[in-house]
UniProtKB/TrEMBL annotation:
<dbReference type="InterPro" id="IPR023881">
    <property type="entry name" value="Thiol_BshA"/>
</dbReference>
<dbReference type="Pfam" id="PF00534">
    <property type="entry name" value="Glycos_transf_1"/>
</dbReference>
<feature type="domain" description="Glycosyl transferase family 1">
    <location>
        <begin position="187"/>
        <end position="349"/>
    </location>
</feature>
<protein>
    <submittedName>
        <fullName>N-acetyl-alpha-D-glucosaminyl L-malate synthase BshA</fullName>
    </submittedName>
</protein>
<feature type="domain" description="Glycosyltransferase subfamily 4-like N-terminal">
    <location>
        <begin position="11"/>
        <end position="180"/>
    </location>
</feature>
<dbReference type="InterPro" id="IPR028098">
    <property type="entry name" value="Glyco_trans_4-like_N"/>
</dbReference>
<dbReference type="GO" id="GO:0071793">
    <property type="term" value="P:bacillithiol biosynthetic process"/>
</dbReference>
<dbReference type="GO" id="GO:0016757">
    <property type="term" value="F:glycosyltransferase activity"/>
</dbReference>
<dbReference type="InterPro" id="IPR050194">
    <property type="entry name" value="Glycosyltransferase_grp1"/>
</dbReference>
<dbReference type="Pfam" id="PF13439">
    <property type="entry name" value="Glyco_transf_4"/>
</dbReference>
<dbReference type="InterPro" id="IPR001296">
    <property type="entry name" value="Glyco_trans_1"/>
</dbReference>
Length: 375
């Protein structure tokens, strides 16, 4: 098939899933065209089946808010017509689903019927999409999509609860490429991070409020009081400065490293003993799956799609949002005994294997075929 993929080209989960899916589809013989405003962060190699079309927005003094959605719709019309695409797959409803709807209508005037699949990723439904300023457009463009997928059962339920949805939603969970995300021997790195053989705790995110990164610091402080440990904070975002300030106030700066945005997250996970994900909401928790694939157990909150990934007491633990005492207690339980830690590590990897790319990719391919056949 010739597939157009629209996504945010950033390190964020939806962009990562879209890019990894596109790469895997291309490796499977499909022709994949990424249509977005920047080269996607993980589109870092050349393949004969991969194409990138940049959406550029012309600047004009009148535009306080440059109309990206219109530029994207126009680009979609262009790429669908001239590359003769069979399907558009848009990741993250806002504004991609409505831009695709507009393109679809325009393409009808050229006698082209392009099927559109929208994949819901999380905050497009749980946070931003619910805002009254977007809700009617999100509802309409989901209902007008030819196919809709969600990354967890919980996200599907949430979508049906909060929007007036008439379309069937297919759940296709996030996936992991185990050939990239696996435990790698990085002893030199581990020695540099934890010279006294301390336990290494890791958190990766976009440091937005929803990730509750302050809780990461509080949980770590409690862990450190019992077990010598180091904390690696990977990523960047609005809460980072507050997090650094809190570390100074708690007197733990020497044990916390803020690494900023990193490409090779798997290298960092390879030296980690535990991953913390205390999010307020999380439709799936791809970062937790990446950790588990690298044999890192996860202490998280019991929200959204996380219970569909973590097996409580086996691959990690889940606590109520904000219950830092319980998260610290669970973390200590995992970390304090080497044999127990190893059991959790093995179980984390075994669970991650259920989400291996080669198992999930056929679900997308079958869904594409179904939607194209029905259009
Ligand atoms: O919150 C993030 O990490 C970014 C966000 C995004 O939209 O890029 O991630 C969402 O999509 C990911 C991929 O499907 C999911 O694994 C994340 O759980 C989800 N984030 C939230 O629901 C908060």
């Amino acid at each position: 098939m010739k597939i157009g993929i629209v996504c945010y080209p950033t390190f964020g989960g939806s962009g990562v899933v879209a890019t990894e899916l596109g790469k895997a589809l291309a490796a499977h013989g499909h022709q994949v065209h990424f249509i977005t405003y920047n080269q996607p962060a993980r589109l870092d190699f050349f393949s004969a089946n991969l194409f990138y079309h940049e959406v550029s927005i012309s600047k004009y003094p009148l535009f306080d808010f440059p109309p990206y959605e219109l530029a994207l719709s126009s680009k979609l019309v262009d790429v669908v017509r001239f590359e003769k695409l069979d399907l558009l797959h848009v990741h993250y409803a806002i504004p991609h689903a409505s831009a695709a709807y507009m393109a679809k209508q325009i393409l009808k005037t050229y006698n082209i019927n392009i099927p559109v699949i929208t994949t819901l990723h999380g905050t497009d439904i749980t946070l931003v999409g619910r805002d009254p300023s977007y809700n009617p457009v999100v509802t309409f463009s989901i209902n007008e999509s030819d196919g809709v997928t969600a990354v967890s059962e919980d996200l599907k339920k949430d979508t049906l609860n909060h929007f007036n949805i008439t379309k069937e939603i297919q759940v296709i969970p996030n996936f992991i490429d185990l050939s990239r995300f696996s435990l790698k021997p990085r002893e030199h790195f581990k020695k540099a991070i934890a010279p006294g053989d301390e336990r290494v705790i890791t958190h990766t995110s976009n440091f937005r409020k929803v990730k509750r990164t302050m809780d990461v610091i509080h949980v770590f402080k409690k862990i450190k009081e019992t077990i010598p440990s180091k904390l690696l904070m990977v990523g960047d975002g609005p809460e980072r400065a507050n997090n650094e300030k809190l570390c100074r106030e708690l007197g733990i700066v020497d044990d916390v490293r803020f690494l900023g945005k990193q490409d090779a997250v798997e290298e960092i996970l390879s030296v980690s003993d535990l991953f913390l994900m205390p999010s307020e909401s999380e439709s799936f928790g791809l970062a937790a799956l990446e950790a588990m694939a690298c044999k890192v157990p996860v202490v998280a909150t019991n929200v959204g799609g996380i219970p569909e990934l973590i097996v409580n007491g086996v691959t990690g633990f889940m606590s109520n949002v904000g219950d830092v005492d319980d998260m610290a207690k669970n973390a200590l339980y995992i970390l304090e005994d080497c044999d127990r830690l190893n059991t959790f590590k093995k179980a984390a990897l075994n669970r991650a294997k259920k989400f291996e790319l080669s198992l999930i990719l056929p679900h997308y391919e079958a869904y594409y075929q179904k939607i194209v056949d029905a259009s």
